[in-house]
Write the structure tokens for this entry.
Amino acid sequence: MDDKSRMSREIHVRFREGGRVRLPRATRLIIGFQHRQEAERFLEALGERMQKFGLELHPEKTRLIEFGQYAAEHRRRRHEGKPETFSFLGFTHICAKTGAGRFLLKRQTTAKRTRATLAAIKTELRRRRHLPVPEQGRWLGSVVRGYFQYHAIPTNIDALGAFRKQVVRAWHASLKRRSQRSRLTWERMGRLSSAWIPPAKILHPWPEVRFDARTQGKSRMR
């Protein structure tokens, strides 16, 4: 960044703060360092930099954690517990291992997001309770497909299955409330869910596959 663009940004921030304009909520920032000392120096410098503009890091949402391939081993040597987790973009990131014992970055849908989505579905099911079952099924299927389009990533299959199960239970409860004489068995509910609600499956490849951009044949970048 040149001096001119840096200065324009600083003026912009000072103008907004001086004019008491409310700044938009910042996107969470995740930064990785190889050595803890580097992370501590950066965190200190970042705090000082923000203070120049009358800003500050949120004390409850800013933390320094040990995470990655060697985190579990290092913490075990210090007789500490498992590596901490962190949430980002709707996923909880966890230090895990493959069946062969290699490091695995495990990502699962955050419980908070799952609860919020299920609550919204239950509310809408109450509103649609007396609509024809096929119409409810088409709507519910589209909601679940949309949810899977974002959350169906590797290592998240258990969370997807649990989410689908809870959706089916919510639909079953909603349909039974349509009538006091409802005879909706779980066998019939299974047929309805199979017909309208997509199964839980991984839809997205691993990041290294998704971002593996290679030239094809003899093509070259010029």
